Amino acid sequence: MRGGRDHGGGAEEGERLEVTAGRPLAERGGGRRGEKAAGWSGTDCCVWFVQTTGLVGLAVCATPHERLRILYTKILDALEHIPQNAAYRKYTEQITNEKLQMVKEERDVQKLEDRLQGGQIEEVIEQAESELNLARKMLQWKPWEPLVEEPPANQWKWPI
């Protein structure tokens, strides 16, 4: 029997499958999208967990709702320091508020993944971390401020 989303990790027949982190497969819909966990029946006394995302270097998040709620809140906090008329703030704030609302409303991880349309929940978390880093960089770069010097006359003309 093999475990994990990619069916490549886990225990071979006769070996014990040790689970250290993850969410129950029943919560995620099986080892892969739409599959039931191998060997799972209603009479089993233990719950299997997703051990891998199937993506190299991307670990399973045991508490995705909490992690996303924290990240989206931090993004919104960072955006408060950007002027309200800045395009980055306006659109990022709108999108982040929509995603945060989805996280608050949808408790099922699979349904949340479908609503967010960003891939696996761990990928969505990674995207939120990147957005938080970008928001903090934007605070340093201040692209909403006027240019220090005028751009060259034909800067946006193509071909030259």
UniProtKB/TrEMBL annotation:
GO terms (BP aspect): respiratory electron transport chain
InterPro entries named in the record: NDUFA5
Compartments in which it is found: Mitochondrion inner membrane
Annotated transmembrane regions: none
Ranges in a coiled coil: 88-122
Signal peptide: none
Segments for region (Disordered): 1-39
Membrane topology: Peripheral membrane protein
Principal place of residence: mitochondrion
Biased composition (Basic and acidic residues): 1-18, 25-36
Keywords on record: Coiled coil, Electron transport, Membrane, Mitochondrion, Mitochondrion inner membrane, Respiratory chain, Transport
GO annotation, cellular component aspect: mitochondrial inner membrane; respiratory chain complex I
Family from the record: Belongs to the complex I NDUFA5 subunit family.
Protein function: Accessory subunit of the mitochondrial membrane respiratory chain NADH dehydrogenase (Complex I), that is believed not to be involved in catalysis. Complex I functions in the transfer of electrons from NADH to the respiratory chain. The immediate electron acceptor for the enzyme is believed to be ubiquinone.
PANTHER family: NADH DEHYDROGENASE [UBIQUINONE] 1 ALPHA SUBCOMPLEX SUBUNIT 5, NADH-UBIQUINONE OXIDOREDUCTASE 13 KD-B SUBUNIT
Subunit structure: Complex I is composed of 45 different subunits.
Protein name: NADH dehydrogenase [ubiquinone] 1 alpha subcomplex subunit 5
